[in-house]
Design a protein that fits this description.
By secondary structure, this protein is mostly helical.
Length: about 180
């Protein structure tokens, strides 16, 4: 299965496993930071991950298909093996996520940056999923502590130069012709 993941060929199975389990850990880290991973946080996390199986840079679509397979089984399994105390649990998760830094460094810069951006997006969406009015002001102090995933080294790829006539897979909306309104 892992050989199907284009762009990840230089990683070992254990390294790919660590990347695949990261979204479950991030969901727990942020969603359960206040002690409880509620229904809204679960629903939004799953929707976000499912959307990433087709609405991503193409190289990541298959990665997220693998992530989504049995996602809640992974979350429940992790929750069963992690400490119940949120502070202790989050310290352990943070240490595990920190181990992703050298793995991400082995990847192509653009792929690593896209993964990092996706992990941050998942953390933010999970935090915003519960509480507040229309999800405004929904981020608790506990979630805010982890939302930026401080254990991960930020990865930013330089902007790609688009050549004339070349499709940009990340900004496909720009290629849609617009019709002026009358």
């Amino acid at each position: 299965m892992w050989t199907l993941l284009s762009g990840f060929e230089q990683l070992s199975k254990d390294e790919i496993d660590a990347l695949v389990e990261a979204p479950a850990l991030i969901t727990i880290l942020v969603g359960a930071a206040d002690g409880d991973l509620d229904r809204e946080e679960r629903t939004w996390s799953e929707r976000l991950l499912r959307s990433r199986t087709y609405n991503n840079p193409k190289k990541l679509n298959e990665f997220y298909r693998v992530v989504v397979e049995g996602f809640w089984v992974k979350v429940h399994s992790e929750m069963a093996h992690l400490p119940e105390d949120p502070e202790t649990r989050n310290a352990q998760i943070s240490a595990r996520l920190e181990l992703l830094n050298p793995i991400l460094a082995k990847l192509d810069l653009q792929l690593a940056a896209d993964l990092y951006k996706g992990f941050r997006g998942l953390a933010e969406e999970t935090a915003e999923a519960s509480g507040g009015f229309l999800r405004i002001g929904a981020i608790s102090a506990e979630e805010a502590r982890w939302i930026k995933l401080p254990m991960l080294t930020p990865i930013v790829a330089p902007p790609k130069e688009k050549k004339k006539g070349e499709d940009d897979e990340d900004n496909w909306e720009e290629d849609i012709p617009t019709v002026p309104m009358r």
